[in-house]
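Quick one: structure for this chain?
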Amino acid sequence: MPPKPKYTRDELIEAALELARECGIDAVVARNLGNKLGVAPSTIFTHFESVEEIRQAVLEAARSLYNEYVEEGLRMTPPMKGFGVQYIRFAMEEHNLFTLLFMQKRNSFKVVDFIITEGHYERVIRAAQTDFSLLREQAELLYHNMFTYAHGIAAMSATGVCSFSIEEIAQMLGMTCRSMLIGMKMPRDERENTMPQMGQTMPGSVASYMMADKKV
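Got it. Here's what it folds into:
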């Protein structure tokens, strides 16, 4: 029978989460956990039956932390842009946890399945419908493309391929979303005027932008 541990289950999960944040999920093993907690590795099996169970708990804890980022993004205006900014910010600040949640190989996974699995699909879709006066299918098309674009930036950030500031990310997402809305030829209302750049508004309708493009 494993010796009685001198720490709680939650403390063990927190230690495992810190290991995953620092070194990746593969570092979450009994020896490393014992060293981090200053105890015999065998004591961890009092709270969990296997290392796989601990890693599953880490996955849930990582998801909870990610959800905190997203909640902050969904409070921004517009929420779709805020969601994208926070998705990328999570990748920048928690690259090992982002890799754990969103960069694992999946068999025959379609893009739409991946997006829905992320967990905030319905909330972002409803926000897009309200903010941009879109039909359901239009909001889904916009979100699928925006999420794919945001994931590309997030993956580059998580792997250290490129470095972006939050201001650059917000501007890129804003301009991309605006371009997609123009491409869909949807009328823009006052709420959409925040899309071109942070802190700037641009008056006019989609038709006026299209006409301006033809004059260039």
